[in-house]
Amino acid sequence: MNLPNKLTLIRFALCFVVLILMVLPYNAMGWDCLPLGNTGFNLIDLLCCFFFIVASLTDMLDGKIARKYNLITDFGKFMDPLADKALVNTSLVLLGIYKPYLMPAAVVVLFIVRDLAVDGLRFVASAKGQVIAANKYGKLKTVLQMVAIPFIFLNGFPFTYVSPLGAQIFCYILISLALVMSLISGCIYIYNGRNIIFPKKGEEEQK
After folding, report:
1. Is pLDDT above 70 for 204?
2. What single-letter DSSP state applies at residue 56?
3. Residues whose CB falls within 8 Å of the CB of residue 160, separated by 6 or more in sequence, listed in order
4. Rounded Cα gap, residues 22 and 111, in angstroms
5. Does the domain spanning 3-206 belong to CATH 2.60.120?
6. What is the distance between the alpha carbons of residues 153 and 52, in angstroms, rounded to a whole number?
7. Is 163 helix (H, G, I), strand (E, B) or coil?
8. Cβ distance 93 to 22 under 8 Å?
9. Pair 144, 181: CB distance under 8 Å
10. Separation CA 137–CA 180 (nearest Å)
11. Average predicted confidence (pLDDT) for the chain
């Protein structure tokens, strides 16, 4: 197994590390997760933020290494997007459950539904021998998500030092920008793939 694929598997594994850290019943285990000083976040928040950032860095590295050294494999083509979606969507769901004041459930649902729609479109296109290229808005959405999620894990730190309300507003702004880019890119994907979803009568008969 080459290095890019190993990095992809590390990202997938870190997704489960974040999941386990967030869902463990610490109170039942007799451990109160108290804030670290006046930071506004606790040790679990910090660890989840750290592992998410490390996983995000592997996302940037594996693709660059694979392209530079011609290490692209079918396994990588399958696992890389799966690991990406697992990391981001798992974090979104966990934050929607444990930090709903910063990550509203409706926002999480919109992110996931958009991803399902685009993935479904790509599946249909692939079955017809067509490829739907990524657009810049989708890439910007991913970047904004990977910036916003660590801040939300840390409850808006370092803006919590200034104002808890200011930290909340900052997190809302970041995730709202990511959501807007997500919906814009999703609409562009659907529009560009409209002939795949709704083929003209003659084209449908040829298929």
Report:
1. no
2. H
3. 38, 39, 40, 41, 167
4. 20
5. no
6. 9
7. coil
8. no
9. yes
10. 9
11. 89
